[in-house]
Structures are given as C-alpha cells and as structure tokens.
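Re: weekly structure request thread

Next one in the queue (278 aa):
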Amino acid sequence: MLWRKLLVPLTAFLLLLTAPAGAGAAEASTGAGAAPADYGAPGPYATEVEVGAVTTLYYPRDIATSDRRHPVIVWGNGTFAFPVVYRDLLLHWAGQGFIVAAANTPQSNLGISMRAGIDLLTRRNADPGSPFHDRVDLEHIGASGHSQGGAAAIVVGADPRIDTVLPIQPGPLADIDDVRVPALLLAGQKDSIVFPFLVKAFYDDADHIPAVYGELRGADHFTVVGDPGPFAAPTTAWFKAHLMGDQTARAQFLGAVCGICTDSGTWSDVRRNALATR
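Done, posted below.
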C-alpha cells in the first residue's frame, strides 16, 4: 500500500527530529527476563540509547558494571530510513544482551558506516574512561540490516571481524560469494518490493557457507518497521546461537533437528543447504 511505502522516510524524519541529541538517552526495556527459549519476549536487560554523528548505539544500560562482555550487532537501514525507524527491534536485541551499532545513514549499501560502528566500539572497549571499557565482546560480531541495509549486511559479511550475517529482505546490490560465515536470509511472503525470489537467489548462491532461507508468512516489506513482530524471535535466536553459543537457539536452524522447519504458522517457506543441516 502506498501509505506504508511513504511511512518509512516520513517516520525516519519525524523521529530523527525528536531523538535525543547525545549520549545517555535512556530507554527502559519492557519487562524482566523470559524463559530461555522465548526469544521474542523482552530480555533481562534495561536498555539505553546513545545517538552519535555516525553511529547510534543500543545497549544494556548497566553495561559498565556488567559481569560479562556483550556481543555486537552492526545494523544497516533501508533506503531513506534511519535507526529510529527500527528502534523496537534494535532495543529488543539490546535487552537480550547485545550491543547494537546502527549506522546513521539512509544509504548504507557500501557498509562503510556499519564498519565504523565496529571501529567505534573497539575504541570504546579500549578506553578506561568509557562505560564500554572491557565490556564489548569483539570476538563475536554479527551484521544485519533491512532492504538496502540487508544488502549492506552481506557486503559487511566479507569483513573478517564478522561472525554471521542476517540480512532482512536484502536488496540486490551485494555478492554473497564474498561472505565466509553462516547466513540467515529472511524474506516476507507478501513483500512486493524485495520479492521472495530475490532473497532465494542469495540463498541459492550461498552453497559455500551454512545458509538458511526463511520466508515469514504474511509479512510485507514494512512488517519489520516499528513493532518487529514475527522478526524479533528468529533474529534473536540466530544471534544468540552464533554470538552467545546458545545451543537451544542453534537447534532452531542448524543440524539434524530444525525447529523452524516444522513451524508452518510462522513460516511459509524454509530452506537449509547441506552445510546447515550437518
């Protein structure tokens, strides 16, 4: 529908005007920790947002006193969009214990600003005066994004610092042949902008890495905007599996048992290549 297509740039503009201009803008998570396998439920961490010139950070509020290092997710926006458009999803990941470095650009395809987010957190982690000091798990970094940003996640996936990629309805301007890490490629059954067959083309070309294709039943191109709905649980589970070593989450996608393969209520199509089924 036309109004939904116009919603992304309009919402991005309005929310950017009202977003906090500097560090320390607090965002409370929506509840206490849920059962370990309920990846769509709010996580155990209260969250905070820091809006910078190049990168917006979404992270656990008490990171300075955390007893652990937190894995990183770098994020790329869709065309004409900014991180605030996807704030609910990014806050959901932060509430689950991730540090999200979202690129402040509506043109993310080259992945330059996403890589800058890794560089920023590397400096913060090394700075004794930073609340992020020694609390960033730079050994476990994932890349994700939506639409143009989904293509950017594939582009950034060639960076040796990246451990997994999760493109959401990715645009076509990327080459998955350059990626050397596991990939979860998400499509929307009713997406009329990035048609599912375009996402399947990436999956078909990803026979050199463990790759999973998931098509969310009933989802269109803007389902992930605002309330992430059906995207929250599978994206969280994928990142928990690959960045936190969660074996319950891993079994949703990889190996002989495949949790999402039997969930026809959520998924209209699921495909796994030979490397993913081992």
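The chain has one domain: 2-28+36-277. The beta strands are 25-27, 47-51, 55-60, 70-76, 99-103, 136-146, 164-168, 183-188, 211-216, 267-272.
Next request, please.
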